[in-house]
Predict the structure of Probable membrane transporter protein.
Amino acid sequence: MSSTSGPLGWAMILATFLVAGFVKGTIGLGLPTVAVGLLAIVMSPAQAASLLIVPSFVTNVWQLLAGPRFGGLLRRLWPMMAAVAVGTVASAGLIAGAQGPGPASALGLALVAYAVVGLAGLSVRVPGGAEPWLSPLVGLVTGVVTGATGVFVIPAVPYLQALGLDRDQLIQALGLSFTVSTVALAAGLAREGALPLAAGAASLVTLGPALLGMAVGQWLRGRVSAPTFRRAFLIGLLLLGAHLALRPWL
């Protein structure tokens, strides 16, 4: 992170996690997506992913334990979570070892896909009979995408939204999925030698602004229109993803 180790670089990093925490506090997700997406403009996705480990883990455990149905969700979703872990650890070499613009472009495409799905507003439900075999498949694909880009949301978030969970269950299920993804990504990066001690210390520094942003976002959640904010977030994500995907050709 030599290019971002100066005062201006650290100011950008801390501001990024403040914004990412704010988004997560407001709509219940988006910290890794926003953080990795913005930081990938000035550093590799692997470096950005190493910075998000601590704030992502802490904020997602916070979100996971805030709901009342952890045991039931874990029993229902463990096949998906196991597949997320396996896929992420197995594919972490993609983000750790890739050179050139490829990782940032892949990250951009993932952000665009997530934004398009969200903006389309499609209402899909997973048939009960399909869940036993579809959950591990979705988990495995999510793990591969996470290992390649550092982003946890595709296709896990649309899939969890399609399970018909109520709002509290969905928020808690997202916390569970993101926690597993964070731990698995940290394990995968460490296995690839892409998570040195200095990166862990730097990630710890970003926890403060992330928690502050999350607290402000939670305070604001009941004072603004959540659908309006989410739409603005998705449009911003679409533009950011398009920029990252197209940057090598601009």
Remarks:
- DSSP finds eleven helices and no strands in the chain.
